[in-house]
Amino acid sequence: MASDAGETSDLLRRAGGGDPQALADLFTRYRTRLRRMVRLRLDRRLQGRVDPSEVLRQACADAAQRAREFAVAAGVPPFLWLRAVTGQRLQALHQQLLGPRMGDAGHEVSLYRGALPLANSVSLAAQLLGRLAPASPAEEQAEKQVRLQEALNNMDALDREILALRHFEELSNDEAADVLGIDRGSASNLYIRALKRLKDVVSRLPGFLH
Description:
Number of domains: 2
Radius of gyration: 18 Å
Largest sheet: none
Shape: globular
Helix content: 55-70%
Oligomer: single chain
Structural class: mainly alpha
């Protein structure tokens, strides 16, 4: 553990000096977390057509090329900087494959460190379904997902986003606050409120665990 911490500290020092290889190595350390974000925010129309691994490969190359930019971004948490770079690559991919107007909608609630595609209700519903509903035949399961999507669509966009950040991307409260550009207390209160609203929404749906 001490050795790993020392290696991370060395990578951060070198990356802070503008070393592209150190930044690429840091990207590798955060790869699992970054993949979680890509899978959650990849537009549903591209699922099955776009390999998240390819998005991550391109994003890693982007990060290495922007090493000097990272070096002057004083105080920016490395993971959040790499997450933003990865999100920008994903957004560019959406624009390339789905048209330039994709850049005008679906952005993260805050433009902090560059807009990312929003976690849409389809992705969130798919993630939630296995946790909130008992296993059932495929047709019934699909119907439950549609009901859950409709319920999520009726939730406030900021509530959906804080759930995506905290519950699915598994960001810490401090990280979520930084992403949304709000203070830590507000982020915590927002998450608690969103969880309560999600529970209220699910409680009104038949066939779900209450």
